[in-house]
Specification:
The chain is α/β, with parallel strands linked by helices. It has 8 helices and 15 strands. About 30% of the residues lie in helices and about 15% in strands. The longest helix is centred in the middle third of the chain and has 42 residues.
């Protein structure tokens, strides 16, 4: 069951940067809220408030919302219109499909002078004879009722017939209140019977789920792999229990019931019970040691229609870990396996997860070799030291194989030989050249 908390309001106030004191619009629909609380203290500036499809049984703690203009309380368990006098700015009120049988309780809305629209369809009072005329005559500020505009002639006629209509409404209300009291007694008796039956079931010994592993509960390492397979008898008991649960669920939904606040609460409790049962996931599994192929095979019965992206497998040398929808399933393996060579696949018929883990040929143990006694180790080390001190070890070098570098010849100087310079032929101008002029002041060319 849900409650209105500060965290819930902040999560639904993202459009206002999660600031709640200045919030003007708030939507808290489909939160399984049973009681209306805290909003008038934390969100005084609200103008629009959506609370449809919850389990609210009473209108309360909204009288301080002076700026509230639209209040939606459709699909709740409200049986009476009350505590709305303080909502001075209220212009639209939606009470569709509730359990309002006291139609005369709408008289409290006379103080809401700005109220223009009212929805009461789907309530027991909407089936009363003279329902619409009574509402039109009682709330003269209304312009629309159940989505239909109120004509002036309709209001005049309703005011003229109001005394007669009011008497009819009171008689019908009285009959409804008697019927409602019987329904409450019947619901209380049935609730008590279910509680007693639940106590009996818990007191009787039954299948303890030994061959099923809770998600998150690791199996002890002392269990042999051959003992992991459930016997046929216990497997039959498990299947029978599953069939019984399915039959009970089908019987619950096919059983006729009255439309009352108690029946809505009963339906919610049933759905919550199923939800908790699904959260306590019990997955059947088998762990086989395939000697022929030298591998360990884990068959995990995950749900057939479960998306594979919600499954994560982690194989380690000594254990295997599977995350199913974020919840861990872990088993200690009876032998060391090769994680890199392991494979995981799903059956196309059953949807089971099959993990094949080849075993390691040679088991690597981390145990060190047997150590010698400490006393003998110390004695031997002392003897070695004395022997070394007695015999002086000298390093001998074979003279024939020795080779010392010749420092003088490390850097060999190259002999510089004088280069011969070719004598270039002298170019003398030819006197036969017609352009040649011999100038005695110009020195000769060498």
């Amino acid at each position: 069951m849900g409650r209105i908390t500060e965290d819930l309001i902040r999560r639904n106030a993202e459009h206002n940067d999660c600031v709640i004191f200045s919030l003007e619009e708030l939507s808290l629909h489909q939160q399984e809220i049973e009681r209306l609380e805290h909003i008038d203290k934390w969100c005084r500036d609200l103008k629009i408030l959506y609370l449809q499809n919850n389990l609210i049984g009473k209108i309360e703690n909204v009288s301080k919302l002076k700026k509230l203009e639209y209040l939606n309380l459709a699909l709740n368990n409200i049986e009476k219109v009350e505590n709305l006098e303080g909502c001075e700015g209220l212009t639209k009120l939606d009470l569709t499909i509730n359990f309002i049988g006291e139609l005369s309780s709408i008289k409290t809305l006379r103080h809401n002078i700005h109220l223009k629209e009212l929805f009461l369809m789907g309530n027991p009072c909407a089936d009363f004879d003279g329902y619409r005329q009574f509402v039109v005559a009682t709330l003269q500020q209304l312009k629309w009722l159940d989505g239909k505009e109120i004509e002036r002639s309709e209001r005049i006629q309703a005011l003229q017939n109001f005394p007669v209509i009011e008497q009819q409404i009171r008689e019908q209300e009285k009959a409804y209140c008697l019927k409602r009291a019987k329904d409450k007694e019947e619901a209380q008796r049935k609730l008590q019977e279910d509680a007693d039956e639940g106590k009996k079931e818990r007191s009787q010994p039954g299948f303890d789920g030994r061959w099923y592993t809770d998600i998150g509960a690791p199996l002890p390492s002392s269990v042999e792999s051959k003992d992991l397979q459930a016997p046929e008898i216990r497997e039959g008991e498990c299947n029978r229990k599953k069939v019984e649960d399915e039959e009970d669920d089908l019987e619950f939904w096919n059983k006729p019931s009255l439309f009352t606040p108690e029946s809505r609460l009963e339906t919610l409790r049933h759905m919550e019970k199923q939800r908790k049962a699904q959260e306590k996931l019990r997955l059947d599994f088998s762990l086989k040691d395939d000697e022929k192929r030298k591998q360990i095979v884990l068959d995990l019965a995950v749900y057939r229609y479960l998306d594979t992206s919600l499954i994560d497998v982690d194989v380690q040398p000594t254990y295997v870990r599977v995350l199913v929808k974020g919840k861990p399933f872990q088993l200690v393996l009876p032998a060391e396996v090769k994680p890199d060579s392991s494979s995981a696949k799903r059956s196309q018929t059953t949807g089971h997860l099959v993990i094949c883990m080849p075993k390691v040929d040679e088991v690597i143990t981390g145990c060190p070799p047997a150590s010698k006694p400490v006393a003998s180790t110390l004695d031997s080390s002392r003897e070695r030291k004395t022997e070394r001190s007695r015999h002086t070890e000298k390093l001998e070098v074979d003279p024939s194989k020795r080779s010392f570098p010749d420092v003088a010849n490390i850097v060999q100087e190259k002999k510089h030989t004088p280069r011969r310079v070719r004598s270039e032929p002298k170019i003398t101008p030819s006197e036969e050249d017609p352009d040649f002029e011999d100038n005695p002041e110009v020195p000769p060319l060498i």
